Amino acid sequence: MNFGKLFGKKSKSKSTQNFNDNEKFDTNVNTSTQPKEKRSIRESIHSEAILNIYPVDSSNLVTASQDRTLVLYDFVNHRIRRRWIGHEHDVVKVLYGSLVQLVVSASRDRTIRLWNTNSDSPVQTLLGHELVVTAIDFNPENSVLVSGSRDNKVMFWDIKTGQTLKTIMIGRNLVTDVKWSHDGTFIVQTGEDKEVKVFDARSMTQAVSFPKKQYIQTSCDISYDNQYVVSNFILPGYLKYSLFFVNLLMSTSNGFNNSGSEISLWDIRQRKLLTEFYGHRATVNSGHFVDQIASMIISCSNDGRAILWNVQKNSMASELEVDNSTPLTSINVMNTQNFATGGLNGKLSIIQQHNRQLQLIDQI
């Protein structure tokens, strides 16, 4: 396989759409959540744990919850813009496709549902997984969806027709997360088999796998320029000389009793671990590159903390106990200054970084 071609660089288009300026978007939504000042403590937008968060634009995000609903929330004006009801079990993952203006949800009820931002009912339901659907992501054109499940399947879907394009079955591959590269050429997947796998997007086949880790790999991310893939681990001193000259992948790790719980950074082409970030005391549930040059990583953990990492110095820049040690299930980047994280108590917290120092600015 030609890895140079597989991991070639190509920019992924980003949407400039903002729902606050979208005339087609229905803002007349019945909601009990009224706008209030920052730092005020308000009633949670979910009655049970928030399991996943995905940014929509500069002021809106989508949340997935154990209460079986997903919510479009305006975190700037503090209002629920829409709540979708329809899943029969926990909503585990959520995704927004800016080019097709669709919200996608994955659930413990084994279904994937596509929702139009202007209607309450799903426009399509994708059936094919036999167990909880744990991972979803779009290709850059938003025309193909990749999904993963505890049924050991990675599936590719045609969004327009709802048909399955390909199903890959890998033994003991209980999928935890998937990410499509920004140039559209490859997909990264983490799983409970403790491996990070890479798939060729064109052939929809597994290309490589990385050396097995000691603990379950819980999430992954890819840098904007495809130089990095995140997996919650890094080798001290290595990045000082080669941070901007290798193709990297990042993944996060399960852990307990101060064992594991790391963030790994991998060289994609050489398939080797570069370094590890340690600082969390329990399972790291989510991690993301913060900016386009991958100078920072944000992560959250069952230890109740969000941590901002300085990649160049391979060190912790700032840590924040978000809500009295309540386990944090998901974190995502709204922009380089603001992050959103969800907790097992159903609260959504907005965190801001200034000069690489984290502070809690709002909690819902």
UniProtKB/TrEMBL annotation:
<feature type="repeat" description="WD">
    <location>
        <begin position="126"/>
        <end position="167"/>
    </location>
</feature>
<dbReference type="InterPro" id="IPR001680">
    <property type="entry name" value="WD40_rpt"/>
</dbReference>
<dbReference type="InterPro" id="IPR040066">
    <property type="entry name" value="WDR31"/>
</dbReference>
<dbReference type="InterPro" id="IPR036322">
    <property type="entry name" value="WD40_repeat_dom_sf"/>
</dbReference>
<keyword id="KW-0677">Repeat</keyword>
<feature type="region of interest" description="Disordered">
    <location>
        <begin position="1"/>
        <end position="41"/>
    </location>
</feature>
<feature type="repeat" description="WD">
    <location>
        <begin position="84"/>
        <end position="125"/>
    </location>
</feature>
<dbReference type="Pfam" id="PF00400">
    <property type="entry name" value="WD40"/>
</dbReference>
<protein>
    <submittedName>
        <fullName>Uncharacterized protein</fullName>
    </submittedName>
</protein>
<dbReference type="InterPro" id="IPR019775">
    <property type="entry name" value="WD40_repeat_CS"/>
</dbReference>
<keyword id="KW-0853">WD repeat</keyword>
<dbReference type="InterPro" id="IPR015943">
    <property type="entry name" value="WD40/YVTN_repeat-like_dom_sf"/>
</dbReference>
<feature type="repeat" description="WD">
    <location>
        <begin position="277"/>
        <end position="319"/>
    </location>
</feature>
<dbReference type="InterPro" id="IPR020472">
    <property type="entry name" value="WD40_PAC1"/>
</dbReference>
